[in-house]
Amino acid sequence: RPSLRMDAQAGLSFEDVPLHLVARTLGTPCWVTGAGTLRRRTRNLKTAFVEAGLDVAIHYALKANDHLATLTVLREEGCGADVVSGGELHRAIHAGLAPEDIVFSGVGKTREEMALALRLGVGQINVESAEELHRLSRVATGADRSARVALRVNPDIDAGTHDKISTGRAGDKFGIAWDQAATLYAEAAALPGLEPVGLAVHIGSQILSPAPFRAAFARVAALVRQLRAEGMTVRTVDCGGGLGIRYRDEIAPPPAALAGAIKETLGTLDVALAVEPGRWIAAPAGVLLSSVIDVKRTPDGAPDFLILDAAMNDLARPALYESWHGILPLSPERLHVDPTPQTVVGPVCESSDVFAEARPLPPLREGDLVAILDTGAYGSVMSSTYNSRPFAAQAMVENGVWQPIRARQPVEALWADETLPDWLRRVS
Ligand code: LLP
């Protein structure tokens, strides 16, 4: 991980900022986002497309990390956005993204969200069903607008990823069934208020082989040809997100492999191309800092429990998907001691609040700091306040400097919006 460095004085640094400084100032748990890493990865992705001779727009999937600072960095790097809710759309606009660079995806858009997207003039709405297509036509005609529509097709391809993040198989809730896509495209062309511009496909997340991408894009390319042969206009193909990263020892395909898959299948079709990466750009650009609350010894030789002050309410991925994240102590001295297997847990009252089982780690003590790695995507955005644990603080680093980008939520904010019904108000 090129942006992380361990040295004898400063301990673990991220983009040349010693992380203990951030943790001691803001307290823990605390998320740190690396702006330089976001930039470097975006540029690497762009370079891969350019080197393949392709012009591919990058619509960053906001859901991975939607902090305004992240969005500002990515806007500066020339990214557009993929949004999946009215909230994300407002956020993208607030971060200064141009409406025409925004694609609105998602399996269930409300009428209000559709109207908002049309009013703001988003570049494209990806439609996922016949029902949604008809609803959008009604909303658009009612608002006297025309919606640029791409049909998100379900190519019935197994991306070989975790069940809970697979989206491109026939039984998944996403996308338009393959054998209905052509008919629906023709229908879209005939419906008022709609301008079908192309096709979209997204088959899953943390995909570790180019093969499912190639297979999905090949099916989409065949459909583009078929639609054109039937006299329809297809101007764009949105290739979705899903490119995986190395969390542990996975062999993740480099961006060049994705570019190759796109070029091979869609390269000669004369369509405007776009991708919607979230994880690949953002995951390695974030760490979660946490302090050791205690080490709970276990009888009968089982691994000790390392109890952190971060928990599943902060980082949900291990509890939800059994995902593996690297864990490093911030202090260099700790690394000289032989590691022993420890089970790293949070304090939340759920058995699934486990970050790592029997993970070899040096002996740690109360107050020691650790970094949980590759948590820049689907980390802070999936936090909750379960167990009345406030949202954690956040900082951004770049080129050896750091600043806070989100205050720790004050505990009073947890109940600030709550009210009592009249009959529970006591007259004093
Ligand atoms: N486009 C669409 C239509 C999507 O549904 C997604 C992710 C993306 C793009 C971005 O995919 P990415 O490049 O990040 O793989 N919370 C899960 C991941 C859920 C992904 C949902 N859709 C996790 O933590 O692994």
From TrEMBL:
Pyridoxal 5'-phosphate binds at G242, E276, P277, G278, R279, Y378. The keyword Signal does not apply. PANTHER family: DIAMINOPIMELATE DECARBOXYLASE, GROUP IV DECARBOXYLASE. This is Diaminopimelate decarboxylase. It catalyses: meso-2,6-diaminopimelate + H(+) = L-lysine + CO2. The keyword S-adenosyl-L-methionine does not apply. GO terms for biological process: lysine biosynthetic process via diaminopimelate. Its cofactor is pyridoxal 5'-phosphate. Residues 37-283 form the Orn/DAP/Arg decarboxylase 2 N-terminal domain.
